């Protein structure tokens, strides 16, 4: 199944203020928590928060290394993606830098 393409206007237009965050139980792994929140908010994951943006398939070295920086170069950030990012960052302790 193809990954849906992120679009600023589409994600920005989704109303997420009424999503019940009490059901969100972070696991402390950024990409897993992002996936959960994206489903809860019914939005498409931002390219800067996709695990595949940082790890290539069949690259064992990158699978072993932890990601410690998120890169948002050349992308606008919609408010819902930013909200997902800020909800997923505190439970984990690996990512220290946002670029």
Explain what this protein looks like in three dimensions:
With 99 residues, the protein is mostly helical. The chain has a domain at 26-56 and 64-98. The chain has helices spanning 8-13, 30-41, 60-64, 79-88, and strands spanning 69-70, 97-98. The longest helix is centred in the middle third of the chain and has 12 residues, at 30-41.
C-alpha geometry: globular
- The arrangement of helices and strands along the chain is HHHEHE
Radius of gyration: 13 Å
Distance between the termini: 30 Å
Residue stretches low in confidence (pLDDT < 50, at least 5 long) are none
Largest sheet: 2 strands, parallel
The average pLDDT is 89
**What is the count of DSSP helices, taking H or I runs of 4+ residues?**
4
The helix content is: 25-40%
- Give the strand line-up of the largest sheet: 1-2
How much of the sequence lies in strands comes to under 5%
Category from helices, strands and their pairing: mainly alpha
How many beta-strand elements? Answer: 2
Task: Label this structure with key terms.
99 residues, mainly alpha, two-stranded parallel ribbon, 4 helices, 2 strands, 33% helix
Q: What is the topological layout?
A:
Blueprint: H1 8-13, H2 30-41, H3 60-64, E1 69-70, H4 79-88, E2 97-98
Parallel strand pairs: 1-2
Helix pairs in contact: 2-4
Condensed summary:
With 99 residues, the protein is mainly α. The protein is 33% helix and 4% strand. It is globular.
């Amino acid at each position: 199944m193809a990954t849906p393409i992120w679009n600023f206007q589409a994600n920005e237009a989704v109303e997420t203020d009424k999503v019940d965050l009490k059901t969100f139980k972070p696991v402390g792994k950024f990409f897993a928590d992002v996936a959960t929140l994206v489903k809860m908010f019914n939005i498409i994951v931002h390219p800067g928060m996709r695990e595949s943006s940082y790890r290539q398939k069949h690259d064992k070295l990158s699978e072993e290394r932890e990601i410690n920086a998120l890169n948002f170069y050349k992308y606008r950030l919609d408010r819902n993606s930013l909200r997902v990012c800020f909800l997923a960052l505190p439970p984990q302790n690996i990512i220290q830098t946002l670029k």
